[in-house]
Amino acid sequence: MAKEKPDKPYPEYPLFAHANGQWAKKIHGKLHYFGSWSDSKAALAKFQEECDYLYADQRPPEKGMSVHEALHHFLDAKQDLVDSGELSERSLNDYVSTFRRLVEFFGRDRPIASLKQTDFGSYRAAMSKRIGPTTVGNEVRRIKSAINWLNESGLITDYIRVGPDFKQPSAKAVRQSRQGKRDKFIEAKDVRKLVAAAQGHVKAMILLGINAGYGNNDIAQLELSSVDLDSGWLEQPRAKTGVPRRAWLWPETIKALRVALELRPNPKPEAETKFFVTMFGRLWVRSHGSTWIDSVRLEFGKVAEACKIDRTFYNLRHTHRTVTDETGDTNAARLVMGHTPRANDMDATYVQKIGDERIKSVCQHVRLWLYG
Fold it and tell me: Are 163 and 196 members of one domain?
């Protein structure tokens, strides 16, 4: 649960409490952070030391920048990409979560320049004891991205090396970790149970999940303008990657979407163009401070629990792709899913157009699998 923001120590206090737990101020349209909520005096002192430089669009002199400060400079740059639409807010929150763990391990006040290759190796070893190889790989990728950015940004004087041991797990380790894990496939009879038990928006979401391979954030970001219920086609780039995708909608899905549209509440400004809106008018998947709220997962979980089916909403996407693989039309299946082509994939290079009949055939194959 997100902490409640503190009030200013006194009305003239020049900083405001940012949701990330720091005192902040926007200068020339850019946010700057000056210290934790818990020490408003230290934050004010830092602001007074740096404000002349910041108002003059100059970088304050470096004073042994801490791990915490350095990573926040990186997050500021990523926030600019979110504002311009080049990075998803979900990706930014993933960075925040990773850095929170990193700061906890090294200490927020440790100088960033003091980190050595052995330190990164120790952190990776500690991670590997707590989380699986796939998650370790994601953590390594995000941290390397931040360190590379810091090395190139000019914010630090000493080049930081993460070392050869700070690397992503091998493909073999990832495969071995997946062995014995719960199957992500949902049997047709169980999908039918879920559809029958669900109502309103959730029923339409489940059908979109199995019909078009839509995941949680795909559902939340679905635009009203992307759904043509009269022609029965859905076309919108995938929210996560921006890769084009197109799907033929089943009659059952169209019927459920019409019901959902009739039940659509009045949206808040951020959800005004979205097809699905919560009862409070918000996005179904959204951030609240540093907390990520996934109402699609929560509401689907209620239906799955009632049906005694131990699966997640995202398993519908896995199931859709598994079934479409039987058609042998990989390129059409990939277009429906919004999958990024693999590197050096010659088909992706030379196949520039996929006809609607092929797309419809892939979606129809899943429908026949489900309803027989």
Answer: no
Q: Copy the structure tokens of residue 215.
A: 């995941």
The candidate with the shortest Cα–Cα distance to 222, out of 197, 199, 247, is: 247
pLDDT one-digit tens code per residue, 319-336: 999 999 999 998 999 999
Q: Other CB atoms closer than 10 Å to residue 141's CB: what's the count?
A: 12
Strands 285-288 and 291-294, by their bridges, are antiparallel
Containing structural domain, residue 213: 188-371
Q: Is residue 309 part of a domain?
A: yes
C-beta atoms surrounding 275 within 10 Å: 25
Global pTM exceeds 0.70: no
State both tokens at 313. Answer: 């909403």
Nearest Cα residue to 154 out of 79, 72, 59, 81:
59
25 contacts 34 by C-beta, under 8 angstroms: yes
pLDDT digits (tens, 9 = 90+) for 228-238: 999 999 999 88
CA–CA separation, 71 vs 26, rounded Å? 18
